[in-house]
Specification:
CATH superfamily of the largest domain: Aldolase class I
Radius of gyration: 20 Å
Bound molecules: flavin mononucleotide
Order of helices and strands: EHEHEHEHHEHEHEHEHHHHHH
Keywords: Flavoprotein, FMN, NADP, Nucleotide-binding, Oxidoreductase, RNA-binding, tRNA processing, tRNA-binding
Family: Belongs to the Dus family. DusA subfamily.
GO molecular function, one term: tRNA-dihydrouridine20 synthase activity
Cofactor: FMN
Organism: Xenorhabdus bovienii str. kraussei Quebec
Shape: globular
CATH class of the largest domain: Alpha Beta
Strand content: 5-15%
Strand order of the largest sheet: 1-2-3-4-5-6-7-8
Length: 345
């Protein structure tokens, strides 16, 4: 399978099965999240885990082709890094995929899960579940021009089209009409009207067994499960049935869980000894970005949750929230906030 990166497991002290000795690149990933998983966020997440696969926010093909911003910018340290594309027109997707490969991305992921009105108006996102052949054509068009894996992130259904057969037909059509062998399944359906994107992440019930069944029926595919997973213990349970686990909100709001990913899920040494060190390791990046004119608050908003549940967490949050936006705010704001945590230890 093109997606798999074999990681040799040298730790013989743990009871690790042969199967576990081969970890797919996306055994653990942090979900694409618009406005959240920007390049600053990803840089920080990478400090916490060497092994997690990181995803960009969704970037539309229109933004890449016509936009004025540098939507594909990232730091080399962020690898392995997947670009999530929003779009449906095969030739345009192919054009963007080519650019993404040239820019050094490790994977391209097509968004077939976002239910927002804006996205539906552009005929992409979750509504594409109803157009499986178009998804396949888009994936194929991308695969024809790049060597990196092209993956699809989707839901288990849309609106009234929520049977297991519908999901299987969707996957089957994409698989048969492209070389796609790697899907991430958000284990709830989406309502295309009547619910906001936020409600669509909370109200439709989660159905993990349906994703497990999909893996049984399509054993040749690399399947990752997503939705409502809150701990690495839960992640390990899911990994008994599927190949990968993707976590979104919990990883963002409580990023300290990422510091345990390498050890718990990859049998690798942890990237950082503790979260205090992770923040200190971010200092050079902050200094570098500030010198380029980045506003401190754009970085610190992603680190507010790192001390969740430990003494000083509230003071840390408050100090950063109240000061990082001020004109001239610099690294001293973060140093001061960190003291508020360390002096309570
Ligand atoms: C703020 C926010 C923005 C999101 N943006 C995207 C996006 O750009 N593309 C996408 O496929 N999913 C997006 N999602 C959905 C997540 O990728 C994920 O599927 C969903 O949050 C369920 O996983 P979780 O329960 O672990 O958070 C977003 C979620 C949140 C909370």
């Amino acid at each position: 399978m093109q997606q798999n990166k074999k990681i040799e497991n040298t730790d013989t002290t743990k009871n690790v099965s042969k199967k576990e000795a081969e970890f797919p690149l996306n055994r653990f990933s942090v979900a694409p999240m618009l406005d959240w998983t920007d390049r600053h966020c990803r840089y920080f997440h990478r400090l916490l885990s060497k092994e997690a696969l990181l995803y960009t926010e969704m970037v539309t093909t229109g933004a890449i082709i016509h936009g004025k911003g540098n939507y594909l910018a990232y730091s080399e340290e962020e690898h392995p890094l997947a670009l999530q594309l929003g779009g449906s027109e095969p030739q345009t997707l192919a054009q963007c995929a080519k650019i993404a490969q040239e820019r050094g991305y490790d994977e391209i992921n097509l968004n077939v899960g976002c239910p927002s009105d804006r996205v539906q108006n552009g005929r992409f996102g979750a509504c594409l579940m109803g157009e499986a052949k178009l998804v396949a054509d888009g994936v194929k068009a991308m695969q024809d021009v790049v060597d990196i894996p092209v993956t699809v992130k989707t839901r288990i259904g849309i609106d009234e089209q929520d049977s297991y057969e519908f999901l299987c037909d969707f996957i089957d059509t994409v698989v048969k009409n492209s070389d796609c062998d790697n899907f991430i399944i958000h284990a709830r359906k989406a309502w295309l009207s009547g619910l906001s994107p936020k409600e669509n992440r909370e109200i439709p019930p989660l159905d993990y067994p349906r994703v497990y069944q999909l893996k049984k029926d399509f054993p040749q595919l690399t399947l990752s499960i997503n939705g409502g997973i809150k701990s690495l213990e839960e992640a390990k349970q899911h990994l008994q049935y599927v190949d990968g686990v993707m976590i979104g909100r919990e990883a963002y709001q409580n990023p300290s869980i990422l510091a345990h990913v390498d050890r718990e899920l990859f049998n690798e040494a942890a990237s950082v000894v503790n979260t205090i060190d992770a923040i200190k390791a971010l200092y050079p990046y902050i200094e570098r970005e500030l010198s380029k004119g980045t506003y401190l608050g754009h970085i610190t908003r992603h680190i507010l949750g790192i001390f969740q549940g430990i003494p000083g967490a509230r003071q840390w949050r408050r100090h950063l929230s109240e000061n990082a936006h001020k004109t001239g705010a610099d690294i001293m704001v973060v140093e001061k906030a960190l003291e508020m945590v360390t002096e309570r230890m």
